[in-house]
Design a protein that fits this description.
The complex is a heterodimer of chains A (250) and B (212).
Chain A (H helix, E strand, L loop, with lengths): L4 E10 L11 E11 L4 E6 L5 H8 L7 E6 L2 E2 L5 H6 L1 E5 L10 H5 L1 H5 L4 H14 L4 H4 L9 H13 L5 E5 L7 H18 L2 E6 L2 H7 L2 E6 L2 E6 L1 H6 L3 H9 L1
Parallel strand pairs in A: 3-8, 3-9, 6-7, 7-8
Antiparallel strand pairs in A: 1-2, 1-4, 4-5, 9-10
Helix pairs in contact in A: 5-7
Chain B lengths: L2 H7 L1 H35 L4 H13 L2 H8 L10 H25 L3 H9 L4 H35 L8 H10 L2 H29 L5
Helix pairs in contact in B: 2-5, 2-7, 3-5, 4-5, 5-7, 6-7, 7-9, 8-9
């Protein structure tokens, strides 16, 4: 079965201000490769500045890779028009970014509307997804984001990302801006959801406990490189100094 | 003679001048929007142009109006005495508030909202029309309001270069030392400015998105 995501030799370098020539470029992501199958969650763990968010943004081409290949559900990301690629990928960010002038229903329905789905199918899908993320559609469909709590907003954010049923889901520290209690609640619910989704998920976090809880596998990034790739148990038992550093902070 | 008598006796001329005044304001504000709005949007896409463009618009705003008219008169095509030069000057005056407010309104939209929109696969045009402009509308309309009100005021001075409008009475009144005449021009102009401010302020409140 085609993996949801294949990343090979991904590299991202930007010119150092004032420097001349590629030899002096700053490398933010260096030779990163991994595969994510459907139903699998790869947690990209790392310190701030380790390159994990940059790697994520190279997948949906918010940054263009300097080198390397990305394949989403078998198709080369570089070959697809960028908006078409992004509509095949669910994207959830820490600041959530719901459109404040759209109702919950309109927010979740965004990609289906952009893709010109028939209205009944869209309405049905919105209802289904709101229920999936634990929000009663009758209560929440017509509400506006400012009327929701942080946790409710991020639930809508996740529903929005799932709306067009993409094969791949990218989450960038999605629960980072929430209070600790809500965060744990959403982590647990996400874990329960993961198995049922049948999608490939890449989940960026710097919280090792969150990573160990949610990941099928963990990819540890350090200074732009992937220094560990394995299961949570393998991570716990690893000798690598960066793994040890994270485990001691767990 | 008092003001009411004056208006009764010169009603046709008064209406003609009001009409000319409205024409100057409407055409110039319309053009300022037609040029300024796309320009403001362009600046959000090409941040490097912001300094020079806003700087230039600021220069035009800073030059005193009569002086600006003076600069424009000798120019070919857009110069000369008359309404056309008046309109050109008024457009230049209207540009800064509109361009700047369009730019500020759009860049004021939450960066997370823009990132989410782009990340989900909205084209630049969809992002602009569905997200950025609706959210920036209040600020943009405020810019239009300012440009219009300034335009009403500056149009009174345009009479000095033959552009017509209510300024005709004001200048004539000053030359003839006739208070009633001055007032006959100044009063409608002031009322027009207040009406424009009021109506556009209403539009701003109605159309600007804000949490209810």
């Amino acid at each position: 079965m085609t993996p949801a995501l294949e990343v090979r030799g991904l590299r991202y370098a930007i010119p150092e201000p004032g420097a001349r020539g590629p030899a002096r470029d700053r490398v933010l992501v260096d030779d990163v490769s991994f595969t994510v199958g459907s139903g699998e969650t790869l947690v990209l763990l790392g310190r701030s500045g380790s390159g994990k968010t940059t790697t994520l943004k190279l997948i949906n081409r918010l940054f263009e890779p300097t080198k390397g290949e990305v394949r989403v559900a078998g198709e080369r990301a570089a070959d697809l028009p960028v908006t078409r690629l992004r509509r095949r990928i669910g994207y959830v960010i820490q600041e959530i970014g719901l459109f404040p002038h759209f109702t919950v229903e309109q927010n979740v329905a965004l990609v289906p509307r952009l893709e010109a789905w028939p209205p009944d199918r869209t309405a049905e899908r919105v209802r289904e997804l709101l229920e999936l993320v634990g929000l009663d559609p009758h209560v929440f469909s017509t509400r506006y984001p400012h009327q929701l709590s942080g946790g409710q907003r991020q639930r809508v954010g996740v529903a929005r990302a799932l709306a067009a049923d993409p094969p791949l889901l990218l989450l960038d520290e999605p629960f980072g801006a929430l209070d600790p209690i809500t965060r744990v609640e959403l982590q647990r619910e996400f874990r329960a959801l993961e198995g049922r989704l049948g999608k490939g998920v890449v989940f960026v976090t710097h919280d090792v406990r969150e990573g160990l809880l949610l990941g099928t596998r963990i990819g540890l990034m350090h200074e732009g490189r992937l220094v560990f790739l394995g299961t949570p148990d393998e991570f716990r038992g690893s000798d690598h100094p960066e793994c040890r550093a994270f485990m001691s902070a767990a | 003679m008092n003001l009411v008598q004056f208006y009764a006796e010169h009603s046709r001329e008064v209406l003609e001048l009001i009409g000319q005044h409205l024409y100057l304001v409407a055409i110039s504000t319309g053009l300022a929007i037609a040029v300024g709005l796309p320009l403001g949007i362009l600046l959000t896409r090409r941040p490097r142009w912001r300094g020079p463009v806003l700087g230039l618009a600021n220069v035009f705003q800073t030059i005193p109006s009569l002086a600006l008219f003076g600069f424009l008169i000798p120019l070919p095509f857009i110069g000369g005495i008359g309404a056309r030069t008046g309109v050109v000057a008024l457009v230049l005056y209207g540009l800064l508030p509109i361009v700047r407010n369009t730019y500020t309104g759009i860049t004021g939209v939450d960066a997370a909202v823009r990132e989410a929109g782009r990340g989900m696969g909205m084209t630049d045009r969809q992002l602009l029309l569905m997200v950025e402009l609706p959210l920036a509308l209040g600020v943009i309309l405020a810019g239009v309001r300012i440009a219009t009100v300034v335009s009403v005021g500056t149009a009174t001075i345009a009479a000095a270069i033959g552009a017509g409008g209510l300024g005709v009475y004001i200048f004539r009144g000053v030359a003839m030392v006739n208070d009633a005449l001055i007032l006959a021009g100044a009063l409608p102009a002031a009322l027009m400015a207040l009406a424009a401010d009021g109506l556009l302020g209403l539009a701003e409140r109605r159309l600007a998105w804000r949490p209810k």
